[in-house]
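Batch manifest, entry 17 of 40.
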Amino acid sequence: MRFLFLVLTLSALAEGNSSEQSQVKLKTAIVADVELVQIPVIVFNDKGMVATDLQKDDFRLVEDGIEQRLLYCDKERESVSLVILGDVSQSMTRKIQFVQEATESILEALPPDSRYQDEYSVFGIENQAVQLVPFTKDQQSIVRRLSALLASTNGATALFDGIYAGALAADREAENSRRAVIIISDGGDNHSRHNLRQTKRFLEEVGLPVFAVMAGHEFEELPPPETPPRLRGIPIPIPMPDVDFVGPAERRGPQDLRTLTEVTGGGVFTAHDPEGLDRIVRTISLAVRYQYVLSYQTLGTEQIKTQNNWHGIRLELIPSGKFKGYSIYYKRGYYRNSRELTSRGNLK
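Output type: structure tokens
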């Protein structure tokens, strides 16, 4: 049987009046026959490797307290558009080599493959978000310029604004439908126009996974560069308030990063040495390219009224004993009026 497969992607916020929200592109296509919900899922096994052999029956999904019947479990390598957000603000001065090495590991995680069209864009984060490199498939060109592009500055940290700018760039400029953001930062923010709550809501809507890589204390022992040059790139014009350089925001960084990444189906990873950094980054790079996509038709939840039309999801691997030590990353819900939908003909 030849299935009809049509996709509706809504990458805009359903509520709010911010200018960034109005800039997000709305991509629509006709939806026919049966409406499905699609949930991207990343799974690491008990050894920290990407789990590649799971089947539909290995997952149990509950929406709004009602178990749903999974119809499809798709998994295949796809081309990916990656946005790398490198924190080069004053708080990262002693970790700037970590930022450079992490970015290089992302770019070299997989060798170029002519079958796929992976592309990368690099942002620097200080007083404002700066797009240092527009999307390009030339990984080595970026690697050769990293020390100049990602150099430490004396700037404050506009991390939340950087996340907005990076996600919007992925929406406006990326060629691939599979997209992800990788943040390299301590998580502190003391100079953004957007706050944590606004950024979290934004990420709940845009529908792309966000991962963060943090440096352990060992990387702080590296000497800072002698003369910190300024960022070179295309600044994203975002009004900035006058705030102190260092304060409680930096100390809340790890928790803020967990809050922001987990709502997207991503997570936070800490590297304690160069070998660990390379292993972590390569694993994340593989995960975003080989993620599972679970599809189901909502049953029994259509009339449930929730705040802001948000519908919560709980996903687990079954039986639990078989998957002891596994880690599963997925979005914890969706807004029903802006979710991704597909149609696959008549379902039995």
